[in-house]
Each structure stands twice: as C-alpha cells, then as structure tokens.
Input
Amino acid sequence: MTIKASRRGNIPPFIVMDVMKAASALESSGREIVHLEVGQPSTGLPSDAVEPVQKLIGEAALGYTIANGIPELRERIADHYKINYGVCVDTESIFITTGSSAGFQLAFLSAFDRGDRVALASPSYPAYRHILTSLGLEPVLLQVSNETRFQPTVALLEELETPVDGLILASPSNPTGTILPKKEFESIIDYCRATGVRIISDEIYHGISYGVDVTTAAGVNAPEIVVNSFSKYFSMTGWRIGWLIVPPDLARSVECLAQNHYISPPTISQWAAVHVFDCLSELEANVTRYKKNREILLRGLPLAGIDKMAPSDGAFYLYADVSKYTDNSITYCQALLDQAGVAITPGVDFDPVNGHHSIRISFAGSTDSIVDAVEKIAAWQSHDEA
Ligand SMILES: Cc1ncc(COP(=O)(O)O)c(C=O)c1O
Output
C-alpha cells in the first residue's frame, strides 16, 4: 500500500541554494570559486558584540524566552524606529522571529486563509511565492519592469480581474535593489487600506541604500505587517533572527502561532541582536564597502557587455538583462560557474516568466572578490563572443 505524501512540499527549489551547492561541489574538487550568488554579508557578528555574547554563553542558562522575544530586544527595536524613522512603535507589537523567513510564515498564517490570493512583484524574492504555495495560498504575480522601477503600482493592482487579499512589498527589492519613492509607497498603502488588502512590507534591506530614502510601513495601529531581519544590514545571517511589527488585530494569533510553531526565537541570537545596536559604525563601514562594490560593478560590467541593469538604489544586488547573450539564464549561469568559476544566480529564480534572460549578481562580498569577478566575467564574455 502506498503511503500518502503531502503535496505541500511540491514547490520549486530555491535555485540560489542549488547554485551554492554546485559551487561548493566545485570547491571541494579543488576549484577556486568567486561567490556572487548568495545575498549574505561576508562579515560576521560586529566585533563589539562578540565579547558580551561569549560571556553570556559561559554564564547564562539560555533557556526558552517568551514567544515574542526578550523585552530588552523589543525595546532596542522600538528605539531604532524612533531614531531612524521618527515613528513610535509599541513594544507589544514587535515579535522577534527566527529570521524573517519564520516571520513570513507567521505573517501569512495569521493574515490569510487557505485559497486567499496574495499579489507580489515578479521578479521578487523566490521564497515569497513558494512559502505562499506551500501554505495553500495563491501567489498572484504582478509582472513589473524598468517602467515601474520593478515595483508594484496602484495601476497594476487596479488591473487585476479578481481582487487579492494581500500584497507583498519589498523596498529595497531583491533581486533588483529598487526602492519605492515615499509618495508611491503611500499611495499603494492608501489604495490597499481602502480596498481591504493586507500589506506585508518586507523591509529587510533597510539600512543598505545608496543616496535614496526608504519608507517604512510601521506606524501606530497600522494594519500593515512589517517584516525585518538582522540578516542583512546587521550582518547576523546565520544567527537566524528577525522581527515582525504586527497590527493589533493579529497580535494574539501571531503570538499563539509563534508559541506553537517555534516556542521562542533562538535565545543567544536575541541577546547578540541587543548588542549589535551598539555596533553601528562597523555596520556603516559594511555599507560603505557595498557602495564601493556596486560602483566597481556598474563601471566594469558594461565593459564586459552587461549594460542593461535595473537601477540598484539599495540592497546588494544588480539585476541585469543578458538577453543579447542567452534566453536560458540557468545554462548561462552554469557555464559562467563551470568555465570562469564565478557563481551568480539565474533570473528564473525570481521571475519564472521573464527571468530566462536575466541574472542577479550579489555584491555583499569583499571588494577583492568583486574586482576578481569583474575580470573573470569580462574574460569569459570576450572568449565566448570570440
Ligand atoms: C527580500 C528577502 N526577504 C527575506 C529574506 C530571508 O532572510 P532571513 O530569513 O535570513 O531573515 C531574504 C534573504 O535573502 C530576502 O532577500
């Protein structure tokens, strides 16, 4: 007798993780690989946070915490909103999560029912649509382009024949790095409030932008859910720690979901995150490096023939159109990895419709690795064209 397996796991892979696996396999066989595929800082926990964390490991029991996280961290996050955005956020609305990835599960489970429709830009972070699908929700792709700076617009929402229940916003976006101007951000919020659409605002790349302001959806009693994380600006990717700002009508259900799904977020990571707010100069130095890396790519890639890029206002990505070289971004990226030893991510991970002729390059690594990658890509492209 065949034993049933759920269809919930029948979702596409997160292709960037597959690229990382292929790159690691090449490294194990002795090849040197430049990693421009994964969006993670190459830096670790900022140095001033290391000692207090080491002390805690030696001294504290580090058991479970309450499900929404230690008050000390929620207070630091509330201060962060006051200082950086001039916004008052109630500490009771802040939920510490196991990375923003767990935050998405809590947000989607608390806000939507099976079969609900959630709109999102395409291209966008692949896990949005895959998590939605696995939870029995329907991702509704808004095909965006350079014309809308790769961001959703009110017009695109109005064009939908069947209404949606939710909308994911990501500004700065992954993979494009584009930022929604404040006016457009607010008009999308107004439209969604008027039409009963719940916004989930992924603000994970706040703190990493290049002369362009970002807007938060956080506010007193706001119906939007804000998702954020310590993985990017705060350089704590592997510590698996993030946060949600949850509207009052969802607070108790998020709490009950969090208690049952996770008990509590990782305790040591919560304390490390408290200390990371004291390390801002080191974190700002990281952003300065991303800026330099971005400039090296913006100068070097066009010389290698890659000259059609989304305006990368923030995050640490460049999303480039390589249609003059390929209509299959997977084989293009495989060839670049195999032949030149440079790992980048095919656009189909982010956009199953138009991503066949796009690539995403992460510039979160060291400046030396970016210089090396540009040289290798240029040599590979010219060899390929010859
Ligand atoms: C836009 C976006 N949101 C969320 C995540 C998940 O991050 P984490 O679970 O590490 O907080 C990522 C990771 O790359 C991302 O790019």
User: Anything to note?
Assistant: DSSP finds twelve helices and twelve strands in the chain. The chain has a mean pLDDT of 95.
